[in-house]
Amino acid sequence: MAAAGDGVARQAELRRIEGNACFKKARLGAAIDCYTEAIALCPDVAVYWMNRGLCHFRRKEWPKVEEDSRRALALDDTLVKGHYLLGCALLEKEEFALAIHEFEKALNLLKSKNPTEQMAEDIWQVLSKAKYLDWEKHSTERLWRRQSLKEACENALKEHHFLSGTLVEDSDGSTDEYSEQIKLLSDVFTKATLADTPTDVPDHLCCQITFEIFRDPVITPSGITYERTVLLEHLRKVGNFDPVTREPLKEHQLVPNLAIKEAVQAYLKEHSWAYSLN
């Protein structure tokens, strides 16, 4: 019995290897068939489900991406790509909060592995998109509720002054109480919309190379903070020197700027529209 089981597992693994070869050649239909055969032989292997889900991802078959990634994660919840794929499927369904949860889990799992810069960048990009779209959705809802409340308050105020006979200007031409209260009400609602109004991000929260808001800021011996991936690319492709001061600089000299990172996180929590800058 054990030998038979080993034989089935070997056959399944051969189907996976064949599927990988087809995937690399962009033969997605053939790859899906190979992974499906592997799943039929060994349905408890998470990577088979995830690989097939990745094929569906390439074909933008989102319901199938969601189904396969959920099956993979049910077997192994530590799969970074599994959470990434599920997040992408949920994002397409406009289930932004759930998508954000999956992308954040993927990033957290990535920290304990040996991630490639591209993998981290891919996850960050879709996370930023999900957070921006989530803000946009709720911002529109808040705007509509505020406008409805403002109109109700203005109507109630107008009715109050009409009934009390104060809905006219003072005889000396000065601003009446009703006008002052309407102006004060308008100021209150204007201030309430500030958090949902995109503005310029403070300079100290942006990289001096990309001018984008920081994600992983590092500080150099010269005291200047840069985005890590951008600075590392500069050191590899341009030369071992600080882009601004031109002083000699090596990768091991970079130190995470935790203060700026915390400031960015606090800023994004209050101004989620800033995710659109990435």
What is the strand and helix layout of this fold?
Layout: H1 2-24, H2 28-41, H3 46-58, H4 62-75, H5 80-92, H6 96-111, H7 117-164, H8 177-192, E1 217-219, E2 225-227, H9 228-237, E3 255-256, H10 258-270
Antiparallel strand pairs: 1-2, 1-3
Helix pairs in contact: 1-2, 2-3, 3-4, 3-5, 4-5, 5-6, 6-7, 7-8
The largest sheet is: 3 strands, antiparallel
Measured on Cα atoms, how large is the radius of gyration?
A: 28 Å
Helices and strands: which structural class? mainly alpha
Low-confidence blocks of residues: none
Q: State which percent range the strand residues make up.
A: under 5%
- The percent of residues in helical segments reads 55-70%
Query: How many alpha or pi helices?
Result: 10
Count all strands and give the number. Answer: 3
How far apart are the termini?
Answer: 55 Å
Secondary-structure element order, N to C: HHHHHHHHEEHEH
Primary descriptors:
three-stranded antiparallel β-sheet; single chain; mainly alpha; 278 residues
Describe the structure.
It contains 10 helices and 3 strands. It has 278 residues and is mainly alpha-helical. A 3-stranded antiparallel beta sheet has the order 2-1-3. Strand 1 and strand 2 form a beta hairpin. The longest helix is centred in the middle third of the chain and has 48 residues. It is flat and about 95 Å long. The two termini are 55 Å apart. The model has no long low-confidence stretch (mean pLDDT 89).
